[in-house]
Amino acid sequence: MVKRKLSIFCFTSPRRGEVGAQRRVRGIDISVLALKPPTPNHTPQGEREYITPRSCCEDDVMSSPDIILRLSNIESYYGPIMAIRGISLEVPRGKIVTLLGANGAGKTTVLKTISGILDPQKGSIEFKGQPIQRMEADRIVRLGLSHVPEGREVFPFLSVRENLMMGAYPRKDRDGVASDIQRVYGYFPRLRERINQPAGQLSGGEQQMLAIGRALMNRPTLLLLDEPSLGLSPLLVKEIFTIIKRVNEEQGMSILLVEQNAKVALETADYGYVLEIGRVVMNDTCQRLMQSQDIQEFYLGAKEDGARGERRWKKKKTWR
The whole model's pTM is what? Predict the structure, then answer.
């Protein structure tokens, strides 16, 4: 048998007094060298460039209490299939953070894991400094977190008013509930016009307004929005996102937004994360993300100069 020697660069610190370590795996000598990770300017040719995730608070110096939601190395599964792979992200208090990515990237799974619909197998989730991973979903709602799911999911046989009151179910302050329902009618005047109409008879845009209004009736400190523009006309999309921005500014509500309309999401949010196959591959302020060549090419539809340019499927994203 011919022995082969393979050098593997391991980004860990060596033990005291050691430069490297030797292992034997199935007759192959492997040298594990403890080295520092290469900087982008000194990345060996042919090696993948590793991107260190930026914190959303690096530019604006914030203390820990200013982070309302923190995910650390979360892994979630659907049966044997790993859907999200070690995701870490932060949502600052009073800011809008968006998750971008293609279908199957894990965006909806992240929201389901936060709201307690899915239990993470690894990692931690902190909401207002309190760990909530593997906590019951109803307890998470009572802590002040509301989730607007993909596809709206209204109660079709209940009236508009009854749907809104379902959002206030955990609350006991009747005066506050009455005030908030009037506020929701102020955001969405169409709901007032259809107050006694069954939710199943509303249009898609009106059902989306109802789903957001129902979530606001809980008076949350963090709102999770999953694809609010799904199936809506451009005029309704503009109206919905105007109201989302208004809710954030008037109530100081933190919002974690999942949206495939990258242009609208980046124009609305303060900070963004890009997901690909269950991993965070890029994160930065939305202004910087909109200037990224990869974001412009793969999410905003920008094309290079020239008659044909390079075929999109032949291009490689630099974040990989």
Answer: 0.77
